[in-house]
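A protein record pairs a chain with a discrete description of its three-dimensional fold. The shape at a given residue is found from the number at the same position. Here is what such a record looks like in full:
>
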Amino acid sequence: MKILVVDDEQPLLDALQYALEREGFEVVTATDSEDALRLFGEHNPNLVILDVMLPTRSGFEVCQILRKRSNVPIIMLTAKGAEVDRVVGLEIGADDYVTKPFSMRELMARIKSVLRRASAPAPVAGPILKAGELTLDVSRYEARLGDTPLSLSPKEFELLRFLMEHPGQVFSRQTLLDRVWGEEKYIEERTVDVHIHWLREKIEPNPRKPKYLLTVRGVGYKFRG
């Protein structure tokens, strides 16, 4: 497994490289956004650890660029107490975040959790779910809107699948976490909101007035088939 680590603090970068290599990972490092983007294209890493504060471009900008290119897992490094950074990071496509200062044990747990989610195998068999122009082929792990293929992350697919399998039923955020994310650690209810937001951007004709993924105020979400 290869990990790209991006941080402009050289001592932290060296410590991260040492710790990750001890865990058996191959590590590529960058200290600025331009090098990060170049090295990503050259090395095609399995995961990116990305600091928010970088020279030239912020980590948020780099995350947005990478997310347009790939579904590679991204863990953001944020400043202590900067909740807005964590929320923005999730909203632009990051898979997780770690707040500085952090322990290497915590970081390794987050890395393994994110990689485990990303490498989960697609189901070998299943139905074709349809609602309006939306089609979910579970056996092929494919989604389409009309004739247009949709690029969904594994968790976006599983969340949409679960909701489409239960049309009209309202589920709380905690229930969705339990049913879609299972026993994975370090997952907050806000994660559900972020994934719903991204799904709406991809499947709704008008994300601001959704026809498929509906919010039930004070309760959670439901799928209208």
User: Anything to note?
Assistant: The mean pLDDT is 88.
